[in-house]
Amino acid sequence: MNDKHPFFIEYCGTTDGISDGESIFEYQHNHIDSCFIRVADSQIVIRFLTKNIFADDDVELFNDLAIGVSASLSMQLNCSINGLRSSDQFLPHRDGSNARVVKTSQISWAVHGAQRSLSEVDLNTLTAHMSVSEPSLVYLSQYLFAKSQSNPVSRFTMLYNVGLQLNKDRQEDLDIAIKKYFPNCPTSKSPYTSQEETIFTRLRNELAHYRSVPFAQTQSEIEASIRDFENTITKMLRVNI
Predict the structure, then answer these.
(1) What tens digit of pLDDT does each residue of 20-43 get?
(2) In this structure, what are the phi and psi dihedrals at residue 87, rounded to the nearest 5 degrees?
(3) Are residues 23 and 72 in contact, defined by beta-carbon separation less than 8 angstroms?
(4) 223: Cβ–Cβ under 8 A, 6 or more apart, which residues?
(5) Are 148 and 113 in contact, with CB atoms under 8 Å apart?
(6) d(C-alpha 122, C-alpha 119), whole Å
(7) Measuring CA to CA, which residue among 236, 227, 212 is closest to residue 161?
(8) Integer distance in angstroms from the first to the last C-alpha of the chain?
(9) pLDDT tens per residue across span 164-214
(10) From CA 236, how far away is CA 10, in angstroms rounded?
(11) Of the N and C termini of the chain, which has fewer Cβ atoms inside 10 Å?
(12) 112, pLDDT greater than 50
């Protein structure tokens, strides 16, 4: 793990979606020389090799960078990253001594998908996702949290909320965006407004409003369409951050 570079801040988690491997890339930042990612035996480590930062400094900014890396991996590989947390750091004190701190504070949750390789990651996209600020960081954080939900209905509901935020909190605008990124998306007329709505907006409204539809039916349709919806929101998010 690049022992020649002594100072670092590290995050770790588990993954069922990335095969064993490692990647290192330079990142232009006042406090970072490079970022090292390793996956082995379903464990992922994200280590920032640091400069010009001390043990007494506020290092919370690295949480945002770790979220950016994790969200980018999730979007690019459609992978699973579970329980991302601050795990270890080794930084100098201003008096010249060194300090190592092992941490276990969780900062995000799970992301579900199939096995992919770190070699597939576009590093330019990855570094771009590390550099975002609000509101994009909020979208990435909520996207990670939404994808962490193992229950398809919970995951669908939270992803729909991300989509709404990306589209002025208007269902009509979200449906336009959905059809842009998923042209073959099924549609139907709303039983209340007679306006055309996508299957995703219909299912969301069946959850949010009384529509005389059994929950089991709505749940079954969500389970059948969640993969298409995840892919659609992921494409939408990529363009909007």
Answers:
(1) 999 998 888 889 999 999 999 889
(2) -120, -30
(3) no
(4) 152
(5) no
(6) 8
(7) 236
(8) 31
(9) 999 999 999 999 999 999 999 999 998 888 889 999 999 999 999 888 899
(10) 30
(11) N
(12) no
Length, in residues, of the chain: 241
pLDDT value for 104: 56
Structure tokens at 37: 């990612």
Higher pLDDT, 68 or 100: 68
- Least confident interval from 52-56, 176-180, 227-231: 52-56
Check whether 2 has a pLDDT greater than 50: no
Owner of token pair 């400094």:
57
Kindly report the pTM of this predicted structure.
0.73
